[in-house]
Amino acid sequence: MIRQSLKFRKTVSIICIIVLIVFIFLVLNKDKNYDIQIENSHSEDAQALSYRDFNRPKKDIIVPREQSNIMDSNSVKEEKDNTKQELLDAKARIELLEKKLAILEGRIPQKYPEVKYLGYKERRRILVTGGAGFVGSHLVDVLMMRGHEVIVVDNFFTGRKRNVEHWFGHRNFEMIHHDIVNPLYVEADEIYHLASPASPPHYMQNPVKTIKTNTLGTINMLGLARRVGAKILIASTSEVYGDPMVHPQPESYWGHVNPIGPRACYDEGKRVAETLAYSYAKQENVSVRVARIFNTYGPRMHVSDGRVVSNFIMQALQNLTITVYGNGKQTRSFCYVSDLVDGLLALMDSDYSLPVNIGNPVEHTIEEFAVIIKDLVPGCRSTVATGAAVEDDPQRRRPDIAIAEKHLHWSPKISLQEGLQRTIDYFKEELSRTTFYNNQTYMDAKVKASHIRN
Ligand SMILES: NC(=O)c1ccc[n+]([C@@H]2O[C@H](COP(=O)([O-])OP(=O)(O)OC[C@H]3O[C@@H](n4cnc5c(N)ncnc54)[C@H](O)[C@@H]3O)[C@@H](O)[C@H]2O)c1
Hints:
The chain is of the alpha/beta class. It contains 12 helices and 13 strands. Helix 3 links the parallel strand 1 and strand 2 (149-154).
């Protein structure tokens, strides 16, 4: 009995031990499965996170330890590469901006010329057509310095932005790129209408366009003056006298123009412009001023202007032969540009509404001019030679300025020597600043050397 009971206990103990071992095994296995499940669920989460929310900081992403070590080193490398690339991009952008800044700094003057302050009652809004050209840009300078608001309208046919760039950004200055053959709608108190090519090679290059500018363009400007009630000054020319039969030329002389000659597009264009001005004055009550401008010279005139002053100075500066077309006995009177501008301003401000000659009455033969210019250029080794005469070239040109003296109290002040010296200095600078071809306008590029005229 006792033996049986001992056997039974032993069996029960063994069973208990086996059950315990099985239990422990199951429990341990269960923990392991749970860990695997958790790990799997975490890595799925991590993937889901990286797809859905790439902006979330990386520390939120839970990854298995070994995998995390590999990813860490990869992402650090990637991050380093990205930062390096970003730095290179930023450096390139900064270099580009620095270059742009340098160009802009070079263009925008540090300081504007001194401008007078005018109250709103005295300040006028003044439109200057052809304001980027030779005469126009000097006129713009004076109007700006007097404190007026200036609007320049130009199509840059012969003009250059460089002539007025020292005003870019000034609150009183505005520039409109526009061809006056098309209507223009702006507000203005006064209009100086100067837009037209002025030198023979320029105006002969496209005669139809020259006529359109002086007729349609003038109609557009007179129409604008009528609409806004502005006073308008028309830049006419001594060419309305053609090859004159009267000497010197008074305003009362009607002229001697060949209507079908090579210069007619300009001469007749200007004559029609004058006719239009007085028609608008009579019919539409527009307040008009007409300046008959004689040959003018000075800084900012075209290097390839093709007329006496620029030709001779350029030839003398480069020790080239100074070419006189014809026998050299034809005469011209040259007015320095600041004198002309003073005359235009005096005319606009006056009550005189008939045409007025503005020019310098000191007359020289072309031959004499060649020698004067040669003597003013130090060390000039040029010789003077004659070439074939130019068709319809006026033989005598000298203004009678009695009306300007009487009604405008104006007469030129700058002597020929002084004016030429300033002009020579300008051309010298132009030559050294840039090569001839870099300095050209749109028009210059089209004009052939064979067109050069006196
Ligand atoms: N310079 C002289 O010796 C002289 C003599 C007599 C008359 N003028 C007259 O004075 C004025 C100015 O002459 P400049 O010597 O300054 O000549 P310029 O060629 O230097 O200037 C004329 C300006 O008018 C612009 N222009 C031409 N056609 C245009 C158009 N359709 N629309 C807009 N702009 C246009 C040109 O781009 C240029 O800026 C002209 O009307 C000219 O006939 C000049």
